[in-house]
Design a protein that fits this description.
11% of the residues lie in helices and 38% in strands. By secondary structure, it is mainly beta.
Length: 188
């Protein structure tokens, strides 16, 4: 069933599902799905965990919370929050990342860190930046409907959201001062 995803991930080391941990506690905050379309990669938020219970709070099939910082207020789950990732040398990909709370857009670099077996995601503002390490998660540990919908996305059967697909950008200012990109957890 998930063989297509496995084959795709073998060709592209950043492809697939990645757990985004809380930078302070290390607890899972959310799950992102990296996919490729036309040689360009993007990451879609597919699942958010409740920070108190650790249980799934929402998925991109039943999104609830909206990105307050982006003028069109898209749902956070289902948002391509990293986009326009193009291959560079050394197995790295460069593109953009948006902070859904503020709408600010940052340069982004992504690569698979083989020694740690984690995905390195770096958001940058001028010479300042922060690198987060995400953990791979097997498709069989996620809700089946989420995995099947993500598989359709990878095959191009589901269009990327118009507000962040391709070369477009969210309707937000770029490169704010003093703000780090962060990733999302459901709040009460």
């Amino acid at each position: 069933m998930f063989s297509w995803i496995s084959a795709f991930a073998a060709e592209n080391p950043i492809a697939g599902f990645w757990v985004i941990p809380d930078s302070d506690t290390g607890k899972p905050e959310s799950v992102a799905y990296f996919y490729e379309s036309g040689g360009i990669c993007a990451a879609r938020m597919v699942l958010i965990y409740d920070e108190d219970t650790g249980k799934i709070a929402e998925t991109f099939l039943a999104p609830r919370e909206r990105a307050k910082g982006i003028s069109s207020h898209p749902h956070i789950c289902g948002l391509d929050f990293i986009w326009d990732l193009k291959p560079e040398s050394g197995g790295r990909y460069a593109g953009k990342v948006v902070n859904p709370d503020s709408g600010h857009v940052f340069k982004c670099e992504v690569w698979y860190d083989a020694p740690s077996k984690k995905l390195a995601v770096r958001g940058e503002l001028l010479i300042f930046g922060q690198t987060n390490f995400w953990l791979p998660v097997s498709a069989d540990r996620l809700p089946k409907d989420v995995v099947l919908a993500a598989e359709k996305l990878s095959r191009g059967e589901v269009a990327p959201p118009p507000e962040l697909s391709g070369n477009s950008q969210p309707d937000a200012p770029e490169k704010p001062r003093g703000e780090k990109p962060r990733f999302y957890r459901a709040r009460n």
